[in-house]
Amino acid sequence: MEYGFSRTLYPTQSFTLRVQTSSDKPIQEVSIHFLNNQYVELNKVNKNTWESTIQVSLVKDYIIGSILFGLEKGENITYYNKNLPGNCLNTFDFKPNNVKVNKYPKPTITSKITRDIKTIIGKALPKSYVNIYVSDPAQQSSYGIGSVQVDASGNFKWNLLEPLKSGGYLTFTAVNSMYFDPADIDAGAVYAESDTVRIPIPALEPTISTKITNKTTKISGRAEPNVKVIAKVSKKIIGTTIANQYNDFNMNIKPIGAGSTVEILTINHNNNESKTVNKIVTDVIPPSRPAVKKVTTKSKSITGKEEKYSLVEIRVKNKLLGRVKATRGGTYSLKIKKMKKGTVIKIVSIDAAKNRSKQVTTKVY
């Protein structure tokens, strides 16, 4: 649970700020933030007391503090200045004897989070506020990118100011007020926030420069620096590599059967995956030369064996006699008229990818 305060101070000298609570739960963190973006973390005196001296040189008009702690109804918290100088408009003393710790319902994010997303749409308690952060556990960093009020129908929309970067998570928390002041609590106001909704920011999908064939032994392309690139066939990993600092990668693989689908994706340092890029393996290996049985002047057909379902093309003096498809068992047969002895017959096989075999030549006996 978090409480914040904002007060206008014009201190003429440094002063000591103390934060105390009667809760059995220790304060987790106390920090004082200033308009010049500097901040001071208060030092822990004991389980329920934090205290630090604030240098007057750090203060610029406003002093803004945030306190993270757990409170139950009826417990007190007091923060004040031990030696507050003159020329200050307010002190910080308050005792919220009726503080309630309420949980708001979690917001629901209806947008699918992609790297090119421009608008985040979701639902939350009407009139509440949704705070949006980017957190990166691996880099131990977190920063806010927006806060939006939910409309009376429970809908909210946030337009991203810049594209999402790889790594980390988008986190969403619903609260009942964007700014909370101790005076509000003194007046009986209740602070409430939801549990956090965390959605991974996906890695950017790779681009593949290699035409993948059944002869390919290396896949090249581009991806985000230092991400892991993985290639799979039928969910089985066939290769991995790491993209270099210049966004390039080269992955060694064993040749894959024609017609197979290669799935290529990246995984960043937070184990967030990218979209999968699918590539169909092209057949560039020609079929073997067809086998042909002896043809005589009495033959009424030309028969032989070839790769199953391949197309067998038969010519005499560059004139097409016919094309016939090999059976599942790899046999073929083309009916012909009887030929003269010594006639030269040329036979080739053509597979589904239009690859042509080497030519076979035979004579009529």
Describe the structure.
It is built from 1 helix and 31 strands. The chain has 4 domains: 80 residues, Jelly Rolls (Sandwich); 81 residues, Immunoglobulin-like (Sandwich); 74 residues, Immunoglobulin-like (Sandwich); 73 residues, Immunoglobulin-like, CATH 2.60.40.10. The strands form 9 sheets. A 4-stranded antiparallel beta sheet has the order 1-7-3-4, with no helix packed on it. A 4-stranded antiparallel beta sheet has the order 5-6-2-8, with no helix packed on it. It is mainly beta. Strand 27 and strand 28 form a beta hairpin. The longest helix is centred in the middle third of the chain and has 5 residues. The N terminus is likely disordered.
Question: Top keywords for this entry?
Answer:
365 residues, mainly beta, Jelly Rolls, Immunoglobulin-like, 4 domains, 4-stranded antiparallel sheet, 1 helix, 31 strands, rod-shaped
Please give the structural blueprint.
Elements: E1 2-8, E2 15-21, E3 29-34, E4 39-41, E5 43-46, E6 49-54, E7 62-68, E8 77-81, E9 102-104, E10 108-109, E11 119-123, E12 129-136, E13 141-149, E14 155-159, E15 169-175, H1 182-186, E16 192-194, E17 197-200, E18 207-208, E19 218-222, E20 228-233, E21 236-242, E22 248-252, E23 261-267, E24 277-280, E25 291-292, E26 301-305, E27 311-316, E28 319-325, E29 331-335, E30 344-350, E31 360-363
Q: Would you summarize the structure shown here?
A:
This protein has 365 residues and is an all-beta fold.
Low-confidence stretches: 1-10, 66-101, 179-188
Number of strands: 31
Number of domains: 4
Portion in beta strands: 35-45%
The value of Rg in angstroms is: 37 Å
Q: What is the CATH class name of the largest domain?
A: Mainly Beta
Shape: rod-shaped
By helix and strand content, what is the structural category? mainly beta
Q: Mind summarizing the main beta sheet?
A: 4 strands, antiparallel
Spatial order of the strands forming the largest sheet: 1-7-3-4
Would you identify the CATH H-level superfamily of the largest domain? Immunoglobulins
Query: Could you say what the CATH topology of the largest domain is called?
Result: Immunoglobulin-like
User: In the CATH hierarchy, what is the architecture of the largest domain at level 2?
Assistant: Sandwich
- Taking the alpha carbons of the first and last residues, their distance comes to 97 Å
- Total count of helical runs of at least 4 residues: 1
Q: Helical proportion? A: under 10%
Q: Which whole number gives the mean pLDDT?
A: 79
